[in-house]
Each structure stands twice: as structure tokens, then as C-alpha cells.
From TrEMBL:
Keyword field contains Nucleotide-binding: yes
InterPro entries: AAA+_ATPase, ABC_transporter-like_ATP-bd, ABC_transporter-like_CS, P-loop_NTPase
One Gene Ontology molecular-function label: ATP binding
Name of this chain's protein: ABC transporter ATP-binding protein
CDD domains, per database record: ABC_Org_Solvent_Resistant
Top-level taxon of the source organism: Bacteria
Record domain ABC transporter: where: 5-241
Residues that span the membrane, as ranges: none
Coiled coil ranges: none
One Pfam family per UniProt: ABC_tran
Assigned keywords, A-Z: ATP-binding, Nucleotide-binding, Transport
Classification via SMART domains: AAA
Length: 309
């Protein structure tokens, strides 16, 4: 079972540049959450702060009840073992084949025998569909395969929390669809707490239990998927619909009068958006028990049993 992450009043600056302030949210144990936000709003900084790679100016990050912002390096090292992180490019060592890349955390952080390591590496490679590619170098495979190899490596220490930094960047839509399915299947199988930073709205609509949005140095909203997808908050609607009209500008925020004029001109036409159906785990993979509760909640809000297929 994954662990809950409870963030309270978190603020981070670099020099005089405030990245975000007073961020509070709870990532529920075992659930999938997505963090959205325009470029440069500090999503990667947020991930790094959760894992203790960056120290916030103020606030707390409680993981399994311990505030990691106050831990000494040795204790932080222990807490970090709860995490698996999938970096944007997979962060593989270019001179090592996939097997050795994936075995690396086990050889570094455990005293397991090579035969035990082999069992675990092959199990994780099987989970991400990479069996047969053990001997390949990262430079010899596609971007999608590199992501999956990075994911297998993030899984070998059986993490309670997995952070994904733009897992879909640089992938074609079909590979993104496969990766999303893999993420949903993995969550159902290992029950860890997932946080995904992405720019891909289609993924954000289908995959998570919860969605958050960072903008103007603040967390505009964080809550259940169906709540954000139905929100009238202009920033949320603009972002989820990928529109130019609204508070988010090309480089900076726009002035209030311009935003008001643009919003007045939007004709959304037709009935309010139907709730995008949730991506279900693949055949043979049991749905986590929480899905029943979520399906009921979504059906109540949207009037149909869209998620209980
Ligand atoms: N170590 C650092 N020192 C100083 N400034 C930093 C550091 N790391 C990040 N920043 C600044 O923090 C801001 C937010 O960066 P971050 O990469 O978290 O944004 P992001 O929302 O992930 O962007 P994108 O969606 O484009 O990946 C940027 O202005 C960046 O320059």
C-alpha cells in the first residue's frame, strides 16, 4: 500500500524569485494524482521538493507522518528509498545495457545476490514489456522504450511513491496511450501513490484520481478529477481546454481587462463537457477497491455511471 503525502504551506524561492507559495495538498495513499501548470510554474521544483532534493523556504512535507523538510541527510536517505522517480529522459546510463541500468539501484542500495537481482530485474522488465531487450544500450532503443526502462528501474526497490516527470514528453500519441495504460495497470498492481507532472491534457483527463494546477506562483486547485474537469475556474478551464483565451498568456499572465474581454467572447457551445471516461486497468488486472467509491462519486456528479464499465 502506498503512503500519503501531506504538504502544508509550502513555499519555495530561488533568490528573489518566488516559484510558488503556500501550497497545501494531500496526495492520498495509493491514488494517482496529476500536477498541471504552464511551463516554468515550478512543477519539477515541486517534485524535487517532495523527494527532499530541494529545501523549501517554509512549510512541511509529511510522508508517513515524518516531515522530510526537517530530516537530517541520513534520515532523508532512508525516506528516499520509499520513492521511485521516472525522470523525463529515463535518466539511463548511456554506456550500460538495460539490464545493468535496471539492476543499478539494487546493486547500489541492497545486499541482494546476483540471482535475486536477476529475478527482480526480469520481473520488472516483464511488467513494462521489455523482455528480450536486456542487452540493448539506451542509444539503440526508442524514446518510448527508454521511458519504460526508466520506469522498470524506478520499480526495482518496490517504491511506495512514484514520481513521474513528464512521462509522455517526446512520445507519439500511440506510445502515450500505451504508457498511460501501463501507468494505470501498474497502479492497480502495486498500489503505490503516484504523482505525474504532465502537459498532456488527454492523459490528465483519463488517468488520475486527482488533478492539481499551478499558476501565478500558487496552487490554483487540487481535487478529485471529476471536480477539476467540471470546474468553472477560468485558469482551470483554459488549461484543460488548451485555449489561448483566458488568464494564461504566452509568457506571463495577462491584465485583468483583457482576460475579461476574452472570456466574454468565448462561446463554448453545446452542453457542458461530459466527463471523460476513466482509463481502466487491462484485462486480467483487478481494479483497486477505491474505484467503486470513485465510480459512485463520479456518477453522482455527472448523472451517469461513466466509470463503472
Ligand atoms: N536550481 C535552481 N536554481 C535556480 N532557479 C531554478 C532552479 N531550478 C529551477 N529553477 C527555476 O524555477 C522555475 C520553475 O522551473 P521548473 O523546471 O520547476 O518549471 P516547470 O513547471 O517544471 O516547467 P516545464 O513545464 O517547462 O518543465 C524556472 O524559472 C527555473 O528557472
Amino acid at each position: 500500500m502506498g503512503v500519503e503525502i501531506c504538504v502544508e504551506g509550502l513555499t519555495k524561492s530561488f533568490g528573489h524569485q518566488v516559484i510558488w507559495q503556500d501550497v497545501s495538498l494531500t496526495l492520498p495513499a495509493g491514488e494517482v494524482s496529476v500536477m498541471l501548470g504552464p511551463s516554468g510554474t515550478g512543477k519539477s521544483v515541486f517534485l524535487k521538493t517532495l523527494v527532499g532534493l530541494l529545501k523549501p523556504d517554509r512549510g512541511s512535507v509529511k510522508i508517513a507522518g515524518r516531515d522530510i523538510t526537517r530530516l537530517r541527510e541520513h534520515d532523508l536517505y532512508e525516506v528516499r528509498k520509499l520513492f521511485g522517480v521516472l525522470f523525463q529522459d529515463g535518466a539511463l546510463f548511456g554506456s550500460m545495457n538495460l539490464y545493468d541500468n535496471i539492476a543499478f539501484p539494487l546493486r547500489e542500495h541492497t545486499r541482494k545476490s546476483e540471482s535475486e537481482i536477476k529475478r527482480i530485474v526480469l520481473e520488472k522488465m516483464d511488467m513494462v514489456g521489455l523482455i528480450g531487450a536486456e542487452g540493448k544500450l539506451p542509444g539503440e532503443i526508442s524514446g518510448g522504450m527508454r521511458k519504460r526502462a526508466g520506469l522498470a528501474r524506478a520499480l526495482v526497490l518496490d517504491p511506495e511513491i512514484i514520481l513521474f516527470d513528464e512521462p509522455d514528453s517526446g512520445l507519439d500519441p500511440v506510445r502515450v496511450a500505451y504508457l498511460n495504460q501501463l501507468i494505470v495497470d501498474l497502479n492497480a498492481q502495486i498500489d503505490a501513490t503516484f504523482l505525474i507532472v504532465t502537459h498532456d491534457i488527454a492523459s490528465a483527463r483519463q488517468v488520475p484520481d486527482n488533478i492539481g494546477l499551478l499558476f501565478r506562483r500558487e496552487l490554483v486547485m487540487f481535487g478529485p478529477r471529476e471536480e477539476l474537469l467540471a470546474s468553472d475556474e477560468p485558469v482551470v478551464r483554459q488549461f484543460l481546454n488548451g485555449r489561448m483565451q483566458g488568464p494564461i498568456g504566452m509568457a506571463e499572465e495577462k491584465d485583468a481587462a483583457q482576460v475579461e474581454q476574452e472570456l466574454a467572447q468565448i462561446d463554448e457551445g453545446g452542453p457542458a463537457d461530459a466527463l471523460t471516461p476513466r482509463l481502466l486497468p487491462g484485462a486480467g488486472i483487478a481494479r483497486p477497491p477505491r474505484w467503486e467509491v470513485i465510480a459512485r462519486r463520479e456518477a453522482e456528479r455527472h448523472g451517469t455511471g461513466v466509470t463503472s464499465a
